[in-house]
Amino acid sequence: MKIIGIIPARYGSTRLMGKPLVDIGGKSMIRRVYEQAKQASLLSDVWVATDDQQIFEEVQGFGGQVVMTDSSHQSGTERCCEAMQKIGSDSAVIVNIQGDEPFIYPQQIDELCRLFTTANIQIATLIQPIDTLAELTAPNRPKVVVNEHLEALYFSRQTIPFLRSFSGETVSEKWLQQHTFYKHIGLYGYRSEVLKRLVSLSPTILEQAEGLEQLRWLQHGFTIQTAITNFDTFSIDTPEDLAVAKRKIL
Fold it and tell me: Where exactly are the structural domains of the chain?
């Protein structure tokens, strides 16, 4: 089965403009993401999909594969779909690799790819148990609840599920002692034919309420398979995150 990784990389960012081009230990962030993705043993190929000439030239400069895509896309999913069509790929599966995670583990990408050995999986992603109160309550760290087959039931920026036994209390460390909560790791895989269908879906009320595109897919009846990973991720969204990333390289 042919699987390709696509790294959406746009120049615009409200909190860190030109994020893919920031220097981390002598290499651009997009280069670090690309080089990590290339180490995944189950990817047949890796491409960067961008809307910016500077990023395009940076990727070409270090010998990576890159395709120019429209600047009007509202999500990485839309950018991945256009890139897939422009590349002319015959891949069965597309993996959407976040362009702001320079330390992504290749093994993590392979974990996601292995899920597609099951024929009926449409969309796949990874989750990880939450072990700190800060992550449990952070709105920028989406949480997910799953069924017995690890299929996603719902994603939220709020702490879910709500523990009724603590009704009236503020979320605290005690919650983590009573229940296993999961955070969402923002790495997606899609069957190529499913990806084409996803970008044609109309926005939904739940997606607009939470600001999470995966809720659109669930509300339209698609199934999202998850797997629990032991590999954590570190995304760079702010100048403070960038400072931490630079310290990791030292």
Answer: 3-249
